[in-house]
Structure formats: structure tokens, C-alpha cells
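User: Sorry, folds how?
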Amino acid sequence: MKEYQRIDRISEELRRELDAIIREEINDPRVDGTWSITRAEVTGDLRYAKVYVSVLEEEKRDKLMEALKNAKGYLRRALGRRMIIRSAPELIFVSDQNIEYGVHIAKVLAETGISSRTEDEEETSSL
């Protein structure tokens, strides 16, 4: 059980540090707009890290993902300097579309007139 907790802590630390490195040190014009690193999954042997990146602007997604893939050597070195681990994992960037899917579902529900709270719930909560 302790091993899983350690991997989870390393994954979260990697996500935070990688986000900071990209925002502070990467000066590529393709890395702009509204994006976020939603999660990182480090393998048990700490050799690989799958990094999920969410981009709200669909037209910028491919450019951002290409820029991150091109900069992954630099990002790995920067992670190695910032984190206290023997070797920085190899980064694998994956486009995360969960937020976009959630926005789509919210739009569909709004169009059909279904909200998160029904009118009956609103009436009883106001009493």
C-alpha cells in the first residue's frame, strides 16, 4: 500500500512542477491559450510518466501538443533539476478531452431544459 501512495505523491509533484516549468520557461508561441495539465501517471518503476493535457480551444490543441512533444527533452532535464528523484521519467503527452466533453454535456442538458436541480427541489429549498 505504501508504494501506491509514493507513486501518487510523485505523480502529483511531477504534475505541479511540469506545469510551472511550461508556464515559466517555455517561450514557444504555440504554448498559449487556455490549457492545463489535468493529471500525471507515473509508472511503478518511475521510467515513464503519462501527462494528460487539457486544451479548451480546439484549434490550438494540435499545435500545443506538438510543441510539448518537441520540448519533452528540455522538460525532462528541468524536472530532473527541480525534483529530488534519481532520474526524471520519460514524458508521454496525451490530450485529455474530459473537460471539453463535460462542457458539451452541459450544453446538451441546457438545450433540453434539464438542469442540475429540478424545479421541485428549488421550491422546497426556498421554503
Remarks:
- The chain has two domains: 2-96, 98-127.
- Helices lie at 2-25, 58-70, 72-82, 98-112, 119-126.
